Amino acid sequence: xxxxxxxxxxxxxxxxxxxxxxxxxxxxxxxxxxxxxxxxxxxxxxxxxxxxxxxxxxxxxxxxxxxxxxxxxxxxxxxxxxxxxxxxxxxxxxxxxxxxxxxxxxxxxxxxxxxxxxxxxxxxxxxxxxxxxxxxxxxxxxxxxxxxxxxxxxxxxxxxxxxxxxxxxxxxxxxxxxxxxxxxxxxxxxxxxxxxxxxxxxxxxxxxxxxxxxxxxxxxxxxxxxxxxxxxxxxxxxxxxxxxxxxxxxxxxxxxxxxxxxxxxxxxxxxxxxxxxxxxxxxxxxxxxxxxxxxxxxxxxxxxxxxxxxxxxxxxxxxxxxxxxxxxxxxxxxxxxxxxx
Length: 341
What we know:
By secondary structure, the chain is an alpha/beta fold. Helices cover about 25% and strands about 20% of the residues.
C-alpha cells in the first residue's frame, strides 16, 4: 500500500473527495463481501491475511505453490498489505483485516423529467490521487446502483422512506439497514441529509447499502413527481409523516404502500414537506394518561423525525422522554406497516 493510496483512503472521509474521485471506503469482511456480491463496482481490495483472499479470491494451484499471488480476480484488483499499513489507512479504532475502494453508483430520479444525480449520458473514467481508475455510467436516464435504476411510477404500491434533513450518519446508516430488513428497496433523501457513502454511514448499514437504492435531491420535487405520476389512478401515492396531532398508528388504517417521511433530529419534518403529507401518524407513548385515543389535538409543529412525546393535557399522554430517536421511530413505523400486510 503506497503513501498515495493511504492518503486517498483517508481523504474519502470528506464528501468533496468522494465526489471528485467517485469512490467511497468500506471496511470489514462482512461489508466488503456484501459489496463484492452486489452490483457495486469494487475497484480494489486491501487485506492483511490469507483468510479473506482465499474466501473471495481463491488462488490457482500454481499461484499458491509459488507464493506469487497478489493480484486480480473477477475484475477486482487485490493487494495483501502489512497490518501497520492497514492501521494507518483505516478510520476504525480497531482496524479490520480488509478494506475496499468502491465506486459511488450513479443514480437518478427520472420520471417527469426530474433527475437528482447529474443527468443522462456517460462520465469518462477519472483517476483518484493514487491513480485508481473510476468508471461511472448511466443508460438512457435510468441509473443503476444497488437496487438498479427506477422510475417514479414504480413507487406505486411499494413502501418507500423519505429522509428530510436527517443529518446524523449513524441514524441514516441504521435507517438504510432497517429498510433492507423490512424489504424497502428505495429511500429518497433531501440534499441536506447525511451522505449515504460517508464512512460512518456505510459502516452502520452493515452491508445493506448494497441492496437499498438511496437517491438525493430536492425532496419536495421527488415526492411531488412520484405522486403526480399516478394522478390517473383513483388515489395518488399516500405520503405519511409522524406528528403529535396525527392518528394513532396502531389504530388507524395503513396502506401496503406509500412514502413515509422521517424528519430531522432537531426540527422534525420541514414546513415545505409537511404540505405534501396526506396522512399524519402518531406513535403514542405508554401508558396513555387519558381514555381518549386516536387522533390527538395538540401542537401544530411537525415533530416527525423524533416523534416528540412531550405530553400534557393537549395530547392526552404522559410526560416522558422528550422524543424518539429518528431511527427508532423508523423501526416502529416500518414494523407496523409490514405487520398489516
